[in-house]
């Protein structure tokens, strides 16, 4: 009985290690309100930020960075996710690449995004994992947003250096004068289980099967 209980506990614990983690980044200025459950990523108000970045997100050792963005903010504490954010500074004249680094190689990363202060028509075109979609907000996020408030963009696999990347562009790709805005990103991370972890999970399952 003790062996069965130990195997059950081991299997549950190891499975948790391979479960997804969601990291939400709320874009704005250093004085912008931040939504509950998100990490602030800040840039320069109404001027270019050559590289905006945030390190060690939620203690994970993961770093996010994005190039050539400006910030606008209404400082609205009741809707912090969508009333401020980044925009494509210089629009088509500059690159607006972003990276997420510090991942385990082989991790599966799914990106979600929301539009910002000018609403869905000005949502940036976001490219990630070979897919391009416009950042849109769904419903009213309020102060405690969930993934249901974001738009799915795409999925990528971390390379051997533990990095995934993408870029944002103007709301209308054929109009160089129309900036793209993004209020927040959310990354859903599923780490690739190591061979040793898979082996331990298999061992736990085998013990359970034999005991039953």
Overview of the molecule:
The protein has helices at about 1-15, 195-210; strands spanning about 20-30, 40, 50-55, 65-75, 85-90, 95-100, 110-115, 125-130, 130-135, 150-155, 165-170, 180, 185-190. By secondary structure, the protein is of the alpha+beta class. The strands form 2 sheets. Strands 3, 4, 5, 6, 8, 9, 11 and 12 form an 8-stranded antiparallel beta sheet that branches. It has a 5-stranded mixed beta sheet with strand order 2-1-13-7-10, with no helix packed on it. A hairpin with a 2-residue loop joins β8 (about 125-130) and β9. α1 (about 1-15) runs antiparallel to α2. The longest helix has 17 residues, at about 195-210. Mean pLDDT is about 90; it is low at about 10-15 and about 195-200.
């Amino acid at each position: 009985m003790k062996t069965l209980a130990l195997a059950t506990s081991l299997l549950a614990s190891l499975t948790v290690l391979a479960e997804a983690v969601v990291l939400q980044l709320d874009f704005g200025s250093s004085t912008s309100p931040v939504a509950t459950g998100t990490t602030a990523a800040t840039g320069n108000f109404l001027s270019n930020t050559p590289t905006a970045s945030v390190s060690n997100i939620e203690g994970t050792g993961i770093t996010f960075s994005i190039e050539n963005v400006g910030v606008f903010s209404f400082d609205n504490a009741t809707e912090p996710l969508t009333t401020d954010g980044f925009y494509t500074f210089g629009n088509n004249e500059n690159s607006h690449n972003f990276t997420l680094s510090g991942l385990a190689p082989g991790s599966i990363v799914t990106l979600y995004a929301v539009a910002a202060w000018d609403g869905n028509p000005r949502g940036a075109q976001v490219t990630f994992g070979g897919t391009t979609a416009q950042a849109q907000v769904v419903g009213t996020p309020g102060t405690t947003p969930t993934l249901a408030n974001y738009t799915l963009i795409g999925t990528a696999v971390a390379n051997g250096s533990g990095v995934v990347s993408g870029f944002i562009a103007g709301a209308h790709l054929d109009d160089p004068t129309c900036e793209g805005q993004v209020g927040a990103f959310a990354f859903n991370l599923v780490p690739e289980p190591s061979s040793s972890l898979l082996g331990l999970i298999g061992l736990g399952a085998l013990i359970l099967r034999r005991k039953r």
